[in-house]
Design goal:
mainly alpha; Acyl-CoA Binding Protein; 5 helices; globular
C-alpha cells in the first residue's frame, strides 16, 4: 500500500470506528515503525479497546520487560476517553504514513 492509498483508506471511512479500523489496517501493511511510536500506538489502541490500564505483575524475563514497556506506555494514557484515544491513534497513524511511507 502506498502513501496515497493509505491516507485515502483512512479519510474515506465515515465513522470514528471505521477510521480507527482503517488506521489499524494501514499499520498492518506499513514499513517498520520506530519503537517510541509503536509504544504510543499500542497505548492508544489498548485505551481505545479496553479503557484504562489495570496494573499487572510479571515475572523477571525478557518478554516481561517488553510487556512492562508496553504497560507503562498504556498507563500513561489513563483517563483518556476511548473516543479521544481512537482519534489520537488515527492522527498518529496519519503522521506515520506522511513521514515514513
Amino acid at each position: 500500500m502506498n502513501k496515497g492509498e493509505a491516507i485515502k483508506n483512512i479519510e474515506s471511512a465515515v465513522t470514528l470506528n471505521e477510521k480507527f479500523e482503517a488506521a489499524y489496517d494501514v499499520l498492518k501493511h506499513s514499513p517498520p515503525i520506530s519503537q517510541d511510536k509503536m509504544l504510543l500506538l499500542y497505548a492508544y489502541y489498548k485505551q481505545s479497546v479496553f479503557g484504562d490500564y489495570k496494573h499487572k505483575e510479571f515475572s523477571n524475563s525478557l518478554n516481561n520487560y517488553i510487556q512492562t514497556f508496553k504497560n507503562n506506555a498504556w498507563s500513561q494514557v489513563i483517563g483518556t476517553s476511548k473516543e479521544d484515544a481512537m482519534k489520537k491513534y488515527i492522527k498518529l497513524t496519519t503522521i506515520i504514513v506522511e513521514e515514513e511511507y
